[in-house]
Amino acid sequence: MTVIDPRAAYGALEGRELIEVMARDVFPGRIAVTSSFGAESAVLLDLVAQVDPDLPVIFLDTGELFDETLAYRYQLERKLGLTNVVVVRPTDEDLKAAQDLWRTDADRCCELRKVWPLARAVAPYGALIDGRKRGHSLERQTISTVEQAGLVTKISPLANWSEDAIETAFKLRGLPRHPLVEQGYRSIGCWPCTRPTKPGEPARAGRWVGSAKSECGIHTLNFGTDGAGI
């Protein structure tokens, strides 16, 4: 039997076309979407809904999200007709261990609130669709539309999309904005570690301000190896 390398076979695709081939042909029944329901999430979720509104959308409720994000999740769910939003939360034990940890150890806080809950949630899936884009930060400038992370294939249909392309999609599709965008938030995570960005700054400059940290860890996890995602 010939084994197909998804990156080699489909890495030139993007947007809705990439989502469609991955969901229907390559990973049928074994693919999910991860979404923060953040500043630009509506564009990816709109494409997903066009392909299959019943695709599982994994939403990490860390216990420290903005109220506006929780409300936006329901708004997008109704607007786009998403029928399978899966809310994932840390265990009670992890929440207890993470209490106020963002003040002293942001990496450990992210691990307890985001990384391990996601790893447990995605165990049944062979592929994950995310909204990462090369223009978000220096760390993301080399991401591909299709990558391998341990035993899981990571699919970033918008990796090559520019800010202008995202803005055009919002307007053409009539997509609602996250309530915090008009206050200067361009990348939205947990409230203790998220600030508005200044003009000219990268989209993720408002995350973990004052530290060298730039990623929470969920996009650098090698799923299915060293116990991750199993």
TrEMBL record:
Its localization reads: Cytoplasm
Q: Which InterPro entries match?
A: PAPS/APS_Rdtase, PAPS_reduct_dom, Rossmann-like_a/b/a_fold
* UniProt pathway annotation: Sulfur metabolism; hydrogen sulfide biosynthesis; sulfite from sulfate
Domain Phosphoadenosine phosphosulphate reductase intervals: 31-196
Tree of life domain: Bacteria
- Catalytic activity annotated for this protein? [thioredoxin]-disulfide + sulfite + AMP + 2 H(+) = adenosine 5'-phosphosulfate + [thioredoxin]-dithiol
Cofactor, free-text remark? Binds 1 [4Fe-4S] cluster per subunit.
Tell me the function of this protein: Catalyzes the formation of sulfite from adenosine 5'-phosphosulfate (APS) using thioredoxin as an electron donor.
Give the NCBIfam families listed for this entry: cysH, PRK02090.1
Q: What is this protein called?
A: Adenosine 5'-phosphosulfate reductase
